[in-house]
């Protein structure tokens, strides 16, 4: 059972990169098409994928480890390269499971782009490989490969739009009794 901010939760040491993975080795192991199959990285050039894997922080999380916690600075986003991350929204000191993030999806870009702290906890529900894209790496992609930066921004926008639509659907289902006749 997940407990928010539990002292039993293992926090991945993102600064010391205890379980870092070398991006070029990962690229060699899985191949470029594997990464291009990720919704966040889809349609990016091989140069852009190399840039992100070489300049981003690639690391492993074991099942049960925390990716980020409530109220931490939102100065990066994370792409799930393998595995599944559960997100728990914190409201009134309670954690509510919102969604699972799978291969290719990103988590954390809303906080980074919105310039606010994390609004929940994220925990690996299985062993994962994660790509962390910091603000400086994000900006560096803009400077180095501006066309790919635009594609990445479009991919991030699409993911946000999908999540917004999913949230709207859940809200509509929840409020199904508050309906009026459709014209």
UniProtKB/TrEMBL annotation:
It comes from the Bacteria. InterPro entries: cNMP-bd_dom, cNMP-bd_dom_sf, RmlC-like_jellyroll. Residues 40-138 form the Cyclic nucleotide-binding domain. This is Cyclic nucleotide-binding domain-containing protein. It comes from Neptunomonas japonica JAMM 1380.
């Amino acid at each position: 059972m997940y407990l928010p901010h539990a002292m039993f939760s293992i926090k991945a040491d993102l600064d010391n990169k205890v379980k870092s993975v070398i991006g070029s080795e990962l690229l060699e192991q899985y191949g470029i098409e594997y990464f291009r199959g990720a919704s966040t990285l889809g349609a990016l050039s091989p140069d852009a994928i190399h840039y992100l894997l070489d300049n981003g922080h690639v690391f492993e999380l074991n099942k049960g480890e925390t990716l980020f916690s409530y109220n931490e600075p939102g100065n990066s986003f994370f792409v799930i390269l393998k595995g599944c991350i559960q997100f728990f929204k914190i409201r009134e000191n309670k954690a509510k499971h919102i969604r699972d993030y799978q291969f290719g999806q990103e988590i954390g870009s809303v906080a980074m782009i919105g310039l606010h702290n994390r609004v929940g906890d994220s925990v690996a529900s299985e062993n994962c490989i994660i790509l962390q894209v910091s603000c400086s790496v994000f900006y560096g992609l803009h400077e180095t490969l501006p066309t790919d930066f635009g594609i990445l921004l479009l991919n991030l926008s699409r993911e946000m739009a999908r999540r917004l639509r999913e949230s709207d659907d859940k809200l509509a289902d929840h409020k199904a009794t508050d309906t009026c006749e459709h014209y």
